[in-house]
Write a structure and sequence with these properties.
134 residues, four-stranded antiparallel β-sheet, two-stranded antiparallel sheet, disordered C terminus
């Protein structure tokens, strides 16, 4: 009889242990699901924040570009071209040559050409010269 009681108790203990193991597995699965949900939500929030930051930066750049475009004048563009040419001349052995073309007896506006003095080859595009304020 004692062996039968021990066998029943052992079976009961095994059943209790099996239930506890199942509860633990369910709890772990729920925890994994919650973690996955939180990870997903965090990734979405991060992506939305990045998208918003890119949008804000693009809007700021567009506003800056509009202000720059509104402030550009033909004289300022000519000045920037002249600065770029001066920089190129300063870094190389280039020289500026003014060329005046004639066609049918009329003289055209002078044109500046940057020439590499080492090779005699014109560097880049020919830039029409405009006299500012004169």
């Amino acid at each position: 009889v004692l062996d039968a009681i021990n066998a029943v108790l052992q079976t009961r203990n095994q059943a209790v242990q099996a239930l506890e193991d199942q509860k633990k597995q369910v709890t772990e699965a729920q925890t994994r699901k919650q973690v996955a949900t939180l990870d997903k939500e965090a990734a979405i929030t991060k992506a939305e924040a990045l998208a918003q930051a890119v949008s804000i930066a693009a809007q700021a750049q567009a506003e800056a570009n509009a202000k720059i475009a509104a402030s550009l004048t033909p004289e300022l563009v000519q000045l920037e071209i002249a600065k770029a040419c001066a920089d190129a001349i300063g870094r190389t052995a280039a020289q500026v040559v003014n060329v005046c073309a004639t066609s049918g007896g009329a003289t055209a506006a002078p044109t500046s050409v940057i020439v590499d003095s080492r090779t005699g080859v014109a560097a880049g595009d020919v830039v029409p010269t405009t006299v500012v304020g004169g």
